[in-house]
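Quick review question:
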């Protein structure tokens, strides 16, 4: 005849015979409800460590083609590391920009300064006098008015340049700022560098025709605004059929030909935080470093070590890039190309559920 146990006797029997290593991953509480702590042996003090080790050893693993070992973790499990503190502030102008900006004009001059406008004025006059009239001139305010017309043309889309001054389609602000003939005259002679020294500078700088002004503009974009936590990086093709050695043809773009830029933008405000032109193969880039990694590290350099997150598409995302960013207190979120050798085979299956 089998012996019947009371509830207290059964509980004590289970506790005395429980082995933490036999757990299927659930935590086992080895403390009884009563005060009989003396019934626990000294080996039970190490039970949590044994349980953790058993859980680690039983996790499914998978090795990628290039040797990376991946461990499967279930959503909701406790992290084995302390996550970095994320960047908490929203995007906002820097203290320098807030001190300077009191009007729309001062806001414009934060990005395109008088120090940038004067060389443009000088080189434009130089080109006009070398090619046409020796008395051709343009004052600084006229150059600023010319730029304002360009901005307004971007706001008011019309089929052609001529239509911007049309009585039916044109913007009245444009017609009040500058005549069409004068606008086209300035556009024809507009230059951003010394035409007599360009041939020498272009030997080491493919972007020599505009690099000085461009570098100042990008620096101003970086120093005038602190982006928020999330920054996105992608490419943008600026439509152009100008004859140059770094002109790109991308069949998937609406405008097939153009100059390609790598752009980093603040997620919420769409502000351009940093931008790089693609000029072809960079001789300074190490041969073992991917172009995508080099681009992301350069664009994110001013914003590292703060707990930000960069979002990328599958051209950029890779395990090595994630590790490099993590070493600089930056995380990455992005799609990944299934042909990457560090990706395990199981992730390429199309029938997996979400969060697996």
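Suggested answer, residue by residue:
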């Amino acid at each position: 005849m089998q012996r019947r146990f009371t509830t207290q006797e059964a509980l004590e029997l289970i506790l005395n015979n429980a082995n933490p290593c036999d757990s299927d991953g659930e935590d086992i509480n080895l403390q009884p409800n009563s005060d009989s702590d003396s019934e626990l042996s000294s080996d039970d003090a190490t039970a949590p460590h044994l349980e953790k080790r058993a859980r680690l050893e039983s996790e499914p693993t998978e090795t990628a083609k290039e040797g990376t070992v991946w461990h499967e973790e279930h959503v909701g499990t406790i992290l084995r590391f302390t996550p970095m503190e994320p960047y908490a502030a929203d995007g906002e102008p820097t203290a320098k920009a807030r001190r300077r900006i009191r009007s729309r004009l001062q806001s414009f001059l934060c990005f395109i300064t008088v120090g940038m406008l004067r060389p443009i004025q000088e080189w434009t006059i130089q080109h006009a006098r070398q090619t046409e009239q020796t008395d051709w001139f343009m004052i600084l305010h006229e150059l600023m008015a010319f730029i304002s017309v360009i901005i307004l043309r971007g706001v008011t889309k019309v089929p052609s340049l001529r239509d911007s001054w049309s009585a039916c389609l044109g913007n009245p602000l444009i017609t009040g700022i500058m005549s069409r003939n004068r606008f086209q005259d300035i556009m024809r002679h507009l230059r951003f560098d010394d035409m007599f020294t360009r041939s020498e500078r272009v030997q080491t700088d493919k972007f020599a025709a505009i690099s000085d002004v461009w570098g100042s503009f990008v620096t101003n974009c970086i120093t005038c605004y602190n982006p928020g936590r999330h920054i996105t990086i992608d490419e943008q093709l600026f439509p152009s059929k100008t004859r140059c050695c770094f002109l790109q043809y991308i069949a998937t773009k609406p405008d097939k030909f153009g100059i390609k830029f790598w752009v980093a933008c603040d997620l919420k405000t769409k502000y351009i935080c940093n931008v790089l032109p693609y000029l072809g193969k960079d001789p300074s880039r190490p041969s073992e470093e991917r172009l995508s990694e080099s681009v992301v590290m350069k664009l994110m350099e001013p914003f590292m070590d703060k707990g930000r997150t960069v979002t990328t598409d599958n051209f950029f995302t890779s395990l090595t890039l994630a590790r490099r960013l993590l070493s600089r207190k930056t995380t990455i979120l992005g799609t990944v190309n299934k042909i990457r050798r560090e990706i395990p085979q199981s992730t390429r299956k199309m029938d997996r559920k979400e969060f697996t």
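Why it works: Confidence is low (pLDDT under 50) at residues 20-56. The two ends are 50 Å apart (CA to CA).
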